[in-house]
């Protein structure tokens, strides 16, 4: 550069300096633009990466929510108990316990009210009922009760069946109670007019006169209720119905109690199904309305009336079923409850696990 200054005239030297300065300015400007472009590119890449991360998080969240929505509900929240109550077996007394506890234990109680108390559903109503019980999630967990005969859910392709419970009673005592209930009602709704109101004839007088309301055929009720929705179940005196009722009692019902030992039944249900019956035993013992329903004007039948009914084949079959249920209930109770100083108490857990492999 020094040599050029010597050889070049001053004007040319000035022009050369100006040209060099312009070139350097242009070069610096281009470099600055390149730096700005690189910064923009880096920011664009960073924003793209952030969006990708956000999208992954969103997709993960959606997958987690979808997985949670499709996951099965908690087992206790999906429980359904059906009590297909036999008339005049303390069914209202037991059902009132369920109503008293439903708010506290967080479940729903639904009464199955059939037209004219018909215990047999039409095939279309069977389908509707099964669909309601299995798919009506807003009502779960649920306790259904009503005078409906046993319904086999497996016939409708249901994988998870409801839990059945029930209570039965000595057949003659049940019939006597029902006879007077139709005439005088009970202390639960004393003002309600009953179907036979005004008929003052006693049960003994009915038996002596061979009346239809106390006929042996009227004993045929607990067997068909447990037998179910087969035509043979309702053929009075059917041996097949008796055997089917026994089969259902031990295979389809979690627990069947007897009216005469209702407190034990309530206690065992509380132990087995605390989601529904936690607090039921204390309520049964101390509640003001749970177990106070009594048929009005009921007179115990004479030995003669009882003996006459016991001569019938229908009584023998109904009594056989009752004795079968009683023996099964007492067997279950013997392995669940003990008595000490006049008080009943539940046995503690009597099994445990050992030899668990593989070792951690």
TrEMBL record:
Keywords: Coiled coil, Disulfide bond, Glycoprotein, Golgi apparatus, Membrane, Signal-anchor, Transferase, Transmembrane, Transmembrane helix. It is found in: Golgi apparatus membrane. Gene3D superfamilies: P-loop containing nucleotide triphosphate hydrolases. It holds the Pfam family Sulfotransfer_2. Residues 52-66 have a biased composition (Basic and acidic residues). GO terms for biological process: epiboly involved in gastrulation with mouth forming second; regulation of canonical Wnt signaling pathway; regulation of cell-cell adhesion mediated by cadherin. Residues 52-73 are annotated as: Disordered. The gene is hs2st1a. Residues 24-51 form a coiled coil. It comes from Betta splendens (Siamese fighting fish). This is Heparan sulfate 2-O-sulfotransferase 1. Its main location: Golgi. GO terms for cellular component: Golgi membrane. Belongs to the sulfotransferase 3 family. It is a single-pass type II membrane protein. One of its GO terms (molecular function) is heparan sulfate 2-sulfotransferase activity.
